[in-house]
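Fig. S4 source data, part A: sequence.
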Amino acid sequence: QVPLVASGGGLVQAGGPLTPSCGAPGPTLNHHNVAWFRQAPGKQREFVAVISWSGGSRYYADSVKGRFTISRANAKNTLYLQMNSLKPEDTAVYYCAARVFGVLKYSRYDYNYWGQGTQVTVSS
């Protein structure tokens, strides 16, 4: 019922920036918290960052804290993940996910709406 479309991934050199985004055309994401997860080949999907529906609260995984910034344009139902100082270990498929608003959640199992993912590859 809530379509999420992730885009903006790509190939980037280590240390460089990249800002994938996630949108929800048509249906709105009002009153939904939205998060980024990532999954590298052979690994489980892991939490990256989350933002409340209002944009007032944010939380980051320790592995990306200080390097990534999550933001949201609520009027356009668009989520961004500004990634700086990228490392090869950041290489993964990045997924956006959503759930109803409330206390911020950090487990993949807490989210019921998912985008298709966008590939981010960081070369060394």
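Fig. S4 source data, part B ends here. The mean pLDDT is 92.
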